[in-house]
Amino acid sequence: MATQENDERLGSGSRMLATWLGVLGVILLLFLVHMVISLHNEIVDQRSELATKQDLRNLAVNIGPTNPAMDALAQDCTDCHSEETFARAHGMSGDVADIVGRMASMADASISQDQIPRLEAGLTFMKCAHCHEISRLKELAILSPQERWDVILEMTEKAGSTITPEEARRIRDFYGDFWGWHSP
After folding, report:
1. Does residue 184 sit within a domain?
2. How many CB atoms neighbour CB 130 within 10 A?
3. Residue-level pLDDT at 61
4. What mean pLDDT do residues 56-80 have?
5. Crossing angle, helix 116-131 and helix 68-77, to 10 degrees?
6. 161: left (phi over 0), alpha (psi -120 to 50) or beta
């Protein structure tokens, strides 16, 4: 008789424990559902505050240097050359590294070795500006580094492109430096 009473007491205790655990599980589930709904509502409220990709394009076109290539060249090259000279003479043909090296070796040039990478990047970027408006090139700023690299590679493969693989890397590596927004 005592064992039967103990079994009933244990069975009753197990049922009681299972009931409490079930109630606790339902309460936790309701709490979790409430948190998910609250998070969803907060995200919906924030969407009106987030910028669209078009907003970022518009912003990119209106901030940063007016012409990053000319900004890169202005300090060292514009005493002798104008923007038109760069676009006409250096914008489409010749290896940029050779051109900058030749200019740096001239007696009256005041180009230091530290300035050469920036000048090469500026002239290389002018190859892009030969076909594309600066505003279009500024839109690259909203892309991730990988997306930007993909666009640059796509442009090197187009018919009539004069951008070499080395110049493509130069554009990629110095793009962030032009605007100072992010490094490569």
Report:
1. no
2. 14
3. 62
4. 69
5. 140
6. beta
